[in-house]
Amino acid sequence: MSTEGTTERDYLQMEVFKGSAKAVKFPQNVHPNRHNPAAVLKRFEKALRENDFRKSDEAWLVIDIDEWDGSEIAALLEWETRDPRHHLAVSNPKFELFLLMHYEKANGCTTPEKVDVALRKYWPGYDKRISRTHFSDGQIRRAIENAKSKRASCKEDLPAAAMTDVYRLVERLLPVNDG
Fold it and tell me: In terms of pTM, does the model score above 0.70?
């Protein structure tokens, strides 16, 4: 898995995912100040070449739409189609939209600023870091349902404004809920 920033890593390493049948590994961040999609993809492709990427493994890129150039996003879409084990978890406008969806559907949160304002209503001290126990299993399942229901209205490869595909990854990582 490769992400643009630390918020995504913090989230995906929360305690609630400990019982997952899937292990999450991140490549070494060799260029910590380069978070554009091309840099994230380049780091990730190198890590996949240097590590044991087995037939049963999945490779996920977690990125934001932000203001990235269309050709950079197109390169990611092309990467995803090259191998059925390649997946994208794209947020529009940013990953924090998925965090907000733990509380609400985030309707109208089409800009990074709107996402921040809405998120701080529920989480006044939010500072881009997430504790290992911040969200419960129930909150995460609510975020998945909120994101999934909004994304159902968009048939494009990339999520429209105020939508995210992060739920696809998170849904795969959650341990099976037996009760």
Answer: yes
